[in-house]
Write a structure and sequence with these properties.
Helix content: 40-55%
Radius of gyration: 47 Å
Structural class: alpha+beta
Shape: rod-shaped
Order of helices and strands: HHHHEEEHEE
Length: 212
């Protein structure tokens, strides 16, 4: 009813009756009713407008946050859908990688197999026609995931004998790599040039947990 009464008064209000030059802004209580109503309307409009603007900005911010969250949720959902669709492929790939890793580990000699490896290297050299001057197992070198076992080899023979020996080492079931070749001319025997070769062969074994 109070709001309706105010509206009725506004309808009956004649602003021409207000003499703004006589209004004392320091004493609002002495203002005529029409002046008070005008000030009340202005204040009410400012408050309503400010509240509306604040609420509208807040709604815009919440809407933008919700839209951003929706985009993120869509991306997460699509990613999970793709992962679920490829899950079996990932599992198959993991099994294949584990099998390949196990196969590689089997090529790495254990401590007890090193003498057998030295024997295999010696046999390959002799089968190739080389004469062994020395074959020495050097101290192990610990790396991040494996342990390296260097073997220094000194042999004598012909050029083609060296090639046959290197091929034979590459065909061993264990992983053996050859490094630091040094070939020197030695002598000529029966028209055949004799050479001496120093080479470092490296084999590897898996580094057990806590080792090194």
């Amino acid at each position: 009813m109070a709001l309706q009464d105010t509206i009725d008064k506004l309808n009956d209000l004649d602003l021409s009756e207000i003499d703004f030059s006589d209004i004392d802004f320091d004493n609002i209580g002495s203002w005529p009713l029409a002046g008070k109503i005008v000030i009340w309307i202005v204040v009410f409009a400012v408050v309503v407008g400010a509240s509306y603007k604040l609420n509208l900005e807040s709604m815009h911010q919440r809407l933008a946050a919700s839209e951003q969250q929706e985009v993120q949720l869509r991306d997460d959902f699509e990613k999970k859908v793709n992962e679920a669709a490829n899950l079996e492929a990932y599992r198959a790939q993991m099994i294949e990688m584990e099998q390949s890793f196990d196969a590689l580990l089997k090529q790495l000699p254990q401590d007890t197999e090193v003498p057998g490896l030295l024997e295999d290297i010696s046999n390959k050299g002799m089968d190739s026609g080389l004469t062994f001057k020395s074959i020495d197992l050097k101290p192990e070198k610990v790396e991040d995931f494996y342990i390296e076992l260097p073997i220094e080899i000194s042999v004598e023979g012909g050029y083609h004998d060296f090639g046959s020996f290197v091929s034979g080492i590459a065909g061993l079931p264990r992983i053996v790599t050859l490094h630091d070749f040094a070939v020197n001319s030695k002598s000529t025997v029966g028209g055949r040039g004799e050479l001496s070769m120093q080479i470092t062969a490296k084999t590897y074994r898996y580094k057990a947990q806590g080792e090194g």
